[in-house]
Please model this.
Amino acid sequence: MSEIRAKRDNDLSRRALLGGSAVAGGAALAAPALAQDKATIEWKMVTSWPKNLPGPGVTAQRIVDQVARMSGGLFRIRLYAAGELVPALGVFDAVSAGTAQMAHTASFFWQGKIPASVFFTAIPFGLLPHEHITWIERGGGQALWDELYAPFGVKPVMAGNTGVQMGGWFKKDINSLDDLSGLKIRMPGLGGEVMRRLGATPVGLPPAELFQALQSGVLDATEFLGPWSDRAMGFHKVAKNYYSPGFHEPNGTGEALFNQVALEGLPEELRAIVLEACRAENGRALAESDWENAGSLKLLQEEDGVTVKAYPEDVLEVLRTTAANVLSEFSDKDAIGKRIYESHLAARARLAPWSDVAMRRFLSARDTNA
Model:
C-alpha cells in the first residue's frame, strides 16, 4: 500500500508542475479503467476559431467533450475560443510557452515562422483528405511533422478535417488572369503566395474578422472552408460569386497542438484518451463536413441567390504551373523543409494513380449513368 500511495503522490506532484490543476475526484467520476482515487486533471485548450463555428469550432468542442466522457470526468479541458485567452493566431506560441496545454488550429497559420508547416494543412493541387491522412499515418508525414515542431516544445496531431475546400467568395467575376490583378484576397498558406505572383494582394486575417473585412471593402474576395462553415460566416450576404475548385486547399486538416511536457506528464491512460479523441475526429468531422456541405450548398444556391462558378481552364492552368514553382522552392530552403516537400511529393506520386483508378473512374461512371 505504501508503494501505491507513494506513486499516487508522485503523480499528483508532477501534474501540478505541468500546470494541470489537480483536485480531489469523487466516486461520481468513476470510470471502469481508471482508479476512483485519482485526481481530476484540468487543462486549457485555446483555438483559432469562433466558439462552435460549424466545422473546426464544433470539432474542438467535441474533442473536449469526448475527453471528459471517456475519462469519466477525470480529465477536463476548458475550451477558450479565439480571443478569449489569446488571439486566434497566437495559439501556437501559447502552447509552446505553456500558457495553455493544448490548442486546436490549422498548421498553415505558422507559415511565417515555420514555412513548411503549410504541408500539414494543405498545399495547392496537393493531397485529398484521404490521401493526406494516409501520408501522415503511413507515409512518414507524422515523424516529419513532429520533427518540425520539436524545437518549440510542441507535439502536433491531426484533429478533424473540413474536407475539400471551395475556391472562395468573389465580389466580381474571374474571367481571366487580368481579373486577379490588384485583387485583395484572404487566402492563407501557399495559395496566397500563388495569388500574389499572379498580381493579387493576399491579406492575412483571422477567421472572425473576415465577414467585416469583405463587407467593408478591405477584401475583394475571401476563401475560408466549405459551404457549411462559409454560410455560417455570412459571406453570401456580401458576395454572390462562389468559385471552385479550391485549388489552394484540396484538404482541410485541423491540428491539435500539445505542450510536449504537459502531454508526456499525463498518466498513460489519459494520454491515450486525448490522442484517440483527436484521431477519431478525422473520420467523424470529415463525414460531418461532407454531409453538411452538401446541404448548405443547396441552400446557398436555392435560397441565398449564390452562383457557383468554376475558375476558367486557362486560369487554372496558370495557377497549377505557378503552384508547382512555389512548391519546388522548398528544395532550396532548410533541410527539414526539403525533406517534407520530397515526402509529400512522393506520397502524391504513389497515391495518385490509385485514386485515379479507384475514384475518378468510378465517379465518372456513376455520374454518367445516374
Remarks:
- The first strand starts at residue 21 and ends at 23.
- Residues 268-302 form the longest helix (35 residues).
- The domain at 2-159+252-290 is CATH 3.40.190.170 (D-Maltodextrin-Binding Protein; domain 2).
